Each structure stands twice: as structure tokens, then as C-alpha cells.
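S1.2 Input.
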Amino acid sequence: MPQCFAKELGIHVDDRVILRDPNHNMIVVYVDKNRDKVYLRQGWLRLKDVYGINLGAWITLTYVRSNLFLIRIKRRTGVEITYPSNPSLAVPRYITPKGVVCLVHFFHTTVKVLDSADILSGYLVHG
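S1.3 Output.
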């Protein structure tokens, strides 16, 4: 990763991170840190196989939190690739390095817009 990123945020990057594409497919990649350098190691080469990318591809990583980066991939021509479709967003597809078992943690958030009955009664009614 770029040295400016590694110096500022490298200490906060976990030893295992998830690279998530716009279709919520996720690739698990292991990270090595050495002084002011951060290297994506085991699992990184899976991008080539999964997305069918070749020499000259442009990969943009967006740091979200210590264990998550969003990825966007463009071919050498500058055209963004077609990401594999994920049949169910409720169960994201994890693509792990060969021979690695991945423990998955899911978080669920529910949002409810309060209506006048909720406010007047003092109770939140989900429905």
C-alpha cells in the first residue's frame, strides 16, 4: 500500500482484512506490516482469478475500518469490470485463500421512522 497511507493508518489495519466489491462479494486477505509499510499477502492473488484481471488493471482500495476495504477494479482500458452477482445480500460470499477457514461475523441494523403514535404513546412499536 502507499507509504503515506501506511505511515498514517497502517497501525490500525488488522492482520486479516476483507476486500468488498460493489456487489458485496468479499475476499479475505492477510496483511503483513513492517515499519511504515503495509503489504497485502495471502489471498491478494485471488483477485486475478475471481475478477479475471490482467496486467495493467487499476484497483482502488477505500479504507472503511481496520478490517474492511471497499474495492473498485478497472481494466487497462479504463472500463470498470463486471462484478460477480451475489444471489443474496443476506449471506455475502466470502472468497478465502485456499485452505483457510474464515469465521464470519454478521451485524444487522433495523431502522424505524417514528410516527405520531410512537411519540404520543412513549413506546416504540415495530411493525
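S1.4 Remarks. The chain has a mean pLDDT of 75.
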